[in-house]
Amino acid sequence: MSTMSIIALRGFATALSAILLTGCVPELYMRTTTVQALEPAEMTVSQHIQSIVIVNRTKPGGNVFNVLEGLFSGEAIGQDKSGSRAWVNGLAAALRNSPRFEHAVSDIRLAGGGTGTSFSDPLEWTEVSRICEAHSVDALVALETYDTDSRVTVLEMLEVVKEGKQKVERVVFVAEEVVTVKLGVRFYDPVNEDVLDQASFTHTMTAEGRGATEAQARDDLNGRVIDAASHEAGMEYGHIIAPVWVPVLRRYYTRFRKNESMKAGAVAARTGDWTTAIARWEQIVTEGDTKMAGLAAYNLAVAHEALGNIQEAIVWANRSATEFDNKLAMPYWGDLEQRQWLENKAVEQLNRVKDDN
Fold first, then answer.
1. d(Cα 131, Cα 84) in Å, to the nearest integer?
2. Which of 84, 132, 192, 276 could form a disulfide bond with 146, CB atoms 3.0-4.6 angstroms apart?
3. Integer Cα distance of 44 and 6 in angstroms
4. Cα dist from 337 to 42, 117, 342, 343, whole Å
5. Alpha-helix residue ranges (DSSP H) falling in 97-207
């Protein structure tokens, strides 16, 4: 599956709950905002590694079998080269959203990698050290194996469209492409001459193309699915080796019963001025009735989360749910507790590195 985090999924569920719980109240409105959440890595990398270089080691070296496989499976010749580059770029993108590593991307494509999930021999340590020294980094992550399988099916369908005042039927072709990316990664530590990680992954993505003819439907796919799936797989590996900041959707109330403080706070929040928003919403908690106070308390939880004050956000979500009986606040309170646990784990990983240095 794609790299949407558990937190992001929980945030989406909260947003959906907001729609369901408030849609029947015409005077109540909500708006979506995005906050950043720090997710922990799946593995903790040794403290002496502060920087890494990403290397593509999938150059086939005249592998005739892969060329023949491409002819029969629908893979474009040269697609693996583009896809493996997309994986490297995906990992680099994930690391740009992480406070853990400095990173570099090597512009060379090394020969000698395996195929699919079958690894060849590891790089020689002299070669690993040479590449690391050339990029002034501590360690090396190599995409060692890479293979794709693409299957396209095309269906002819009838759809009803409006032309002027008339509804007419027309034929449309829908091409569905299912791409499976199979790859293997090694994480080299040249100081200790240790392979910190050797893992195989399979990543699948489905996409759809449409057109008036079968050829147009196939062309609409445009070969982008393999690169997109590979980029996602690269980002996923970034989440394995490093704590990463991820976007999370939240919703807040913008107006209710023509309350000016609620509206003014929402206007400030829309521009990112959460401090002003907090001041306006706190007035409502002090002066408003129970319903208004519950909505404002919920908004205050979102505001403090946006500012990175998770504990304060938990306090306000708790008050909104228990003191003011805001039904939407209860699942949000749970989201915040989960986020705090995950963020504490990520900070612990980062602090362990700092303390050991």
1. 19
2. 84
3. 19
4. 19, 38, 9, 10
5. 125-135
Q: Which of 292, 289, 295 is nearest to 328 (CA)?
A: 295
The CATH homologous superfamily to which domain 6-40+246-347 belongs is Tetratricopeptide repeat domain (1.25.40.10)
Angle separating helix axes 290-306 and 260-270, nearest 10 degrees = 10
Tokens 């003191």 belong to residue: 323
In this structure, the chain runs to a length of 357
pTM of the model: 0.78
Report d(CA 34, CA 32) in Å as an integer: 7
CA distance 84 to 203: 13
Q: What 3-state DSSP class applies to 353? A: helix
Q: How many whole angstroms separate alpha carbon 158 and alpha carbon 271? A: 46
β-pair partners for 103: 52
